[in-house]
Amino acid sequence: MNDKNTTERQLIFGKNAVFEALNAGREIDTLFVQKGVQLGSIIAEAKKRGVVVKDASAEKLSAMCGTPKHGGVAAELCAAEYAELEDILAESERKGTPPFIIIADEIADPHNLGAIIRSAEAAGADGVVIPKRRSASLNSTVFKTSAGAAAWIKVARVANLVDAIKTLKNRNIWVYGMEADGSPYDRTDLTGGVAIVVGSEGFGLGRLVRESCDGILSLPMNGRVNSLNASVSAGIVMYEIVRQRSLKR
Q: What is the pTM of this model?
């Protein structure tokens, strides 16, 4: 069966098509499988390649693919290729600047993730780190919302954010989470190697992620609403980093 392109997804469906795509090394974001359908070899190959595997009903697959003849499996292609965490660290070395990294902690809304990626690229960040689970991914919605920035900035998808944070800290990079009870963002020295962690829309930073941070930053809230959209708050802190670094030159 062929690729099916929609405004939201780029899909390959059917057992043979999906299996051949995996064997050919195509960048697959998520594999959707129907319960009860014999797909052991496809699932095993997907997991070996680090592809996220999700259960889906026959009805959902039919709606996604636009046909009931999907064979019980569909694969969502990445709109851009993922990088490795080391690739992001190498980017700052290439530029000769302190590391500047954004970590999105379970940002589920693809529009928010796309906006964060767009701001990160515009601010000159070296890359964005997202988790494999419970997060939006580099699908076409994220790519569109980023205005194409996802094609220019490195995005790494890691199995464990806490482990990624530990790796960054071992490279002398300060990691700051963003929460309402933190220190004022503009009174913290952000001119060295730094990674900013943006929490999820509904729950903020995960407990273990927060505990792994070197500090917590906050934005002033002077209105009746006590929170900002995740992508807006991330953009403000990104440009505080840009401001501080420009003054230090």
A: 0.77
| C-alpha to C-alpha distance for 23 and 53, rounded to whole angstroms | 16
Identify whether the C-beta of residue 104 lies closer than 8 Å to the C-beta of residue 129.
yes
Contacts of 48 (CB under 8 A, 6+ apart): none
> How do residues 142-201 score in pLDDT, each as one tens digit?
887 888 788 889 999 999 999 999 999 999 999 999 998 899 999 999 999 999 999 887
Task: Give the closest residue to 52 by CA, choosing from 35, 72, 29, 84.
Answer: 29
Nearest to 162 by CA among 99, 211, 234: 211
Q: Which residues of 211-240 are buried (b: 16+ CB within 10 A; e: fewer)?
A: ebbeebbbbeeeeeeeebebbebbbebbeb
Token pair belonging to 105: 């902690």
